[in-house]
Amino acid sequence: MLDPAPILPAVIPAAASWLDLAGIAVFAASGALAAARRGQTMVTLCFFALVTGVGGGTVRDLLIGAPVFWVHDARAATVCLTIALLIWVTPARWWRGAALDWFDAVGLAAYAVYGAAKALGYGIPPVPAALMGVITACVGGIVRDVLAGEPSILMRPELYVTAAALAAASYVALVLLGLPALAAAVIAAAAGFSLRAAAMRWRLALPAYREPR
After folding, report:
1. Which end of the chain is more exposed for a tag (fewer CB within 10 A), N or C?
2. Distance, CA of 111 to CA of 134 (rounded, Å)
């Protein structure tokens, strides 16, 4: 895992640390690109990449009483800074189109599952553990949007946070039903990704509040 604290292996898939790094890389890329599109400096790209990549996991660890993962393991920060440097030195056309959105959908689902699994491993009850998965997957993007002056993902009707919630809640439910951790993670991540993919493909959104007459 990305922190030295003991985690219950029964609820953490063996490959979780690599999935965690992959999710960090995807979110770091989205943060660095947000700065790059505004013509910012290399330092700003690195800052956006780091905040977006580790923001959700940092809040999660503080809430569940775990050591903040990226402070105790250099890999997370190294991945974020490497991604920022890569975006800085490559042509902008490489990062256009919908490819990053699809990678983000994968990272969203995987990161939500990982956050929920880590919370369960620290003895957090099922409902708060699922919410920790949502926080892990979404807080970094929220901070990125605020810093970039964009409407937060929380303020958009698109199914983004909902997809993270589906992935996290599905994982917690499947683990409680006795499914092996790896199988539960695959199924839950696939469910979250499928919902996010459907939302991007068909522009699905939740109904907005309308004041009763």
Report:
1. C
2. 8
Query: What does residue 158 show for φ and ψ, rounded to 5 degrees?
Result: -60, 155
Per the CB < 8 A criterion, the answer to whether 141 and 170 are in contact is: no
Q: Model confidence over 75-122: pLDDT tens digits?
A: 999 999 999 999 999 987 888 767 778 888 988 998 999 999 999 999
**């907005």: which residue's tokens?**
208
- Does the reported pTM lie above 0.85? yes
The structure tokens listed for 52 are: 């977006």
Q: Using CA atoms, how far apart are residues 141 and 6, in angstroms rounded to an integer? A: 28
pLDDT in tens, 8-29: 446 666 667 777 888 899 899 9
The token duo for 9 is 């292996």
What residue type is assigned to position 134 of the chain? Answer: V
